[in-house]
Write a structure and sequence with these properties.
Blueprint: H1 13-18, H2 22-37, H3 43-57, H4 60-64, H5 71-79, H6 85-99, H7 106-113, H8 118-140
Helix pairs in contact: 2-8, 3-5, 3-6, 3-8
């Protein structure tokens, strides 16, 4: 059961909760739209980040959806199989960045810079922050009509 009041408007519990602060919801929607539609980083890379974070945060619904029309990507990312080196590096970076950003080293960044420009790295960080924040809001506020919290990573 949601841990905050939900509006009576249509939408997911996540959307209903954000409707309590419409000015923030509008900004989130705009940021999501700008980041998702930007061509600085390939959409498939953003989708891999979204899927990886869904797995880390235990969001079953998010893990099962494809925003790019390639559901085989879901299994690859969630099982971490047949991934390119740059994806493995990115996922390891995400693991450290989310919880211990001070532990990131110049060597870590240089590894990523083999594949991404500084501009791309900044957009990657923005995408990571946005999706991680969305999942954490859903999980911490028990807004599970949209996602299901799992103690372990679940694979469809």
């Amino acid at each position: 059961m949601a841990r905050v009041l939900l509006t009576n408007e249509e939408g997911t519990n996540f959307e209903k909760a954000l409707n309590l602060i419409p000015h923030v919801k509008k900004l989130y929607d705009e940021l999501y739209d700008k980041l998702w539609n930007s061509d600085i980083v390939k959409r498939e890379t953003k989708e891999k980040i979204r899927l990886y974070l869904a797995g880390v945060n235990g969001c079953e619904t998010c893990m099962s959806m494809s925003y790019v029309g390639d559901e085989t990507l879901n299994q690859k990312v969630l099982r971490e199989e047949d991934l390119e080196e740059k994806d493995r590096l990115l996922f390891r970076f995400i693991d450290v960045y989310r919880v211990r950003p001070r532990d990131l080293t110049d060597a870590d960044m240089n590894q990523l810079k083999k594949f991404y420009s500084d501009t791309q790295l900044l957009e990657l960080l923005a995408v990571i922050n946005l999706f991680d924040q969305f999942h954490k809001l859903i999980v911490s506020l028990d807004l599970y009509d949209f996602c299901s919290l799992q103690r372990k990573r679940c694979l469809p």
